[in-house]
Amino acid sequence: MPVPVLLVTGFLGAGKTTIVNHLLAHAQGRRIAAVVNDFGAINIDAELIAGASDGVVSLANGCICCSLEGDLLRTLSTLLRRNPKPDYIVIETSGVADPADIVRNLMDPVILREAPLETVLCVLDATAPPAALDDALQRSQLRVADIVALSKLDLAEEGAGARMRQAIRAQRVPAGVVDAHHGEIPPALLFPAGADRAPAPREVGPKRPAEERFETLSWTSDKPVSLPRLQRAINRLAPKLARAKGLFETLEQPGRQMVFQFAAGRATLAPGDAPAPGAARSRIVFIAELGMLSRAELDEIMKTCVAGG
């Protein structure tokens, strides 16, 4: 029996992982396979994912998560050979990915027969200005969508959701728009009601040249960080960052790992699981537009966060 695919796209920090997390946590007996190609997604240690068999981690509720290592078609083939097979496959794209290229891959006749693309969900940050949709990459993410989910409405100012809906209508996309409070979307909108229902046909345009727009810089330290110093460092780096996320231990709370997220000018901290054996005590990934942030500048700023820096 074919396994339907849900493709989740959206710009850096839009809230894709929150939605995928909610789907996995409220699977209601469905076996969901989540394919992720972004650091630290689904709240599973990156080290755990990297060390698992075939890059796959089994979750307590019968769902699984795997990292996207190698090409997408090979990853899907691995999932479809599992026994039992998943009921659904959710693919969370990188925030810098053009989903049109992924849709094109999923139109491969062999994959289409075994894992048909059922729904494309585009996640938009309701706190972002409507002008953000003028960005070529965000327009591409929006135009392939069947459903657009507005995230972070609890953080947005009054009327922001309505303004974003108006901006979406101005793009003349046929997608329906839903509010995703705390990552919640009715499963009936995302998963088919009957396994025998064929997915809608999709037009795939010609492949466009890839545009190298973003770069990733990683920073690690075997020492814990000072939280006040880290806050000052992030304030210095913020104007140049598109996204940042990581795991670290603090001087103030030794032995306790924190999960750090930075998106749309906002930084958040949350308690994490116990550090993986042998992992660096502090590891953060920074994403910036090409040429905006040099390795030397990053290292110079971040070394002030550790004892003796």
TrEMBL record:
<dbReference type="InterPro" id="IPR051316">
    <property type="entry name" value="Zinc-reg_GTPase_activator"/>
</dbReference>
<dbReference type="InterPro" id="IPR027417">
    <property type="entry name" value="P-loop_NTPase"/>
</dbReference>
<keyword id="KW-0547">Nucleotide-binding</keyword>
<keyword id="KW-0378">Hydrolase</keyword>
<feature type="domain" description="CobW C-terminal">
    <location>
        <begin position="214"/>
        <end position="306"/>
    </location>
</feature>
<protein>
    <submittedName>
        <fullName>GTP-binding protein</fullName>
    </submittedName>
</protein>
<dbReference type="InterPro" id="IPR011629">
    <property type="entry name" value="CobW-like_C"/>
</dbReference>
<comment type="function">
    <text>Zinc chaperone that directly transfers zinc cofactor to target proteins, thereby activating them. Zinc is transferred from the CXCC motif in the GTPase domain to the zinc binding site in target proteins in a process requiring GTP hydrolysis.</text>
</comment>
<dbReference type="Pfam" id="PF02492">
    <property type="entry name" value="cobW"/>
</dbReference>
<dbReference type="Pfam" id="PF07683">
    <property type="entry name" value="CobW_C"/>
</dbReference>
<comment type="similarity">
    <text>Belongs to the SIMIBI class G3E GTPase family. ZNG1 subfamily.</text>
</comment>
<keyword id="KW-0143">Chaperone</keyword>
<dbReference type="InterPro" id="IPR003495">
    <property type="entry name" value="CobW/HypB/UreG_nucleotide-bd"/>
</dbReference>
<dbReference type="InterPro" id="IPR036627">
    <property type="entry name" value="CobW-likC_sf"/>
</dbReference>
